[in-house]
Amino acid sequence: MGSCPEPLCPEADSATAFPCVPALIRSRERYASDFDILVLVSDRKLAEPHYWDRATDRLRWDKAIATPVGLIAHGAREVNNYLAEGQFFFADILREGIVLYELDERPLAQPKALGPGDALKAAREHFDRQHSSAQRFLELSRMAISRNWDNHAAFLLHQAVEAAYPALLLTLTNHSPPSHNLTFLRGLAEDRDRRLVEAWPREQHRHTVWFKVLNKAYVKARYSRHFEVSKEALYWLMERANVLLRLVECICREHLAILEGEAVKQRGKK
């Protein structure tokens, strides 16, 4: 893990043409301590997920890697733009991250500090859009369950949870990585507020299995003839998704209230 080996990134095997610049890692506490790696590439096209599927699979399944690792890839210019826009997610990584491997020593842009008014406006727009989207998907999944459309219900529940986590991440950090991986999104969100852990109990094996079923539902519930989900699992997943949305709303509204207070203070100084 101390370098960016070619087997993980076969398309970037030419350091001159496709340098990996730099990989930043940030640790965080969860149920099992794990890491996130941000890989910056010279060309945004090389950040597309299919270039990193092999690396992601290896990090996830290699038995020699005991600590869970999440991988996010972005183009360096894209990240510089995010920093210039004041996105807290990348500013935090720039401030707290550790460089693991570096072929291009050009520094990243200095993060712009958003004014209180702009921060409030952006956060409120993110929350209103994403949380309402999550609520609609949850309502649709409830209808699907009532009509015994179990696979559709599982897919819609996946979409509800997939919308809920970005609602929190965007509201709190102004950034959420585009991902359908609920385990990955859950980890990022729980890193921001540990109260979210309550949404998904891990003590019972069946609950862990049911969350994995939900995570697979984005693809398999639609396309696999072998995908199955029990009514018991669906009802439990529905219940926990409701808990998640309530927690997300509570945390986001707390954050919005803080931002509003800061914006009021800023206006009072003018």
From TrEMBL:
<dbReference type="InterPro" id="IPR007842">
    <property type="entry name" value="HEPN_dom"/>
</dbReference>
<protein>
    <submittedName>
        <fullName>HEPN domain-containing protein</fullName>
    </submittedName>
</protein>
<dbReference type="Pfam" id="PF05168">
    <property type="entry name" value="HEPN"/>
</dbReference>
<keyword id="KW-0614">Plasmid</keyword>
<feature type="domain" description="HEPN">
    <location>
        <begin position="131"/>
        <end position="251"/>
    </location>
</feature>
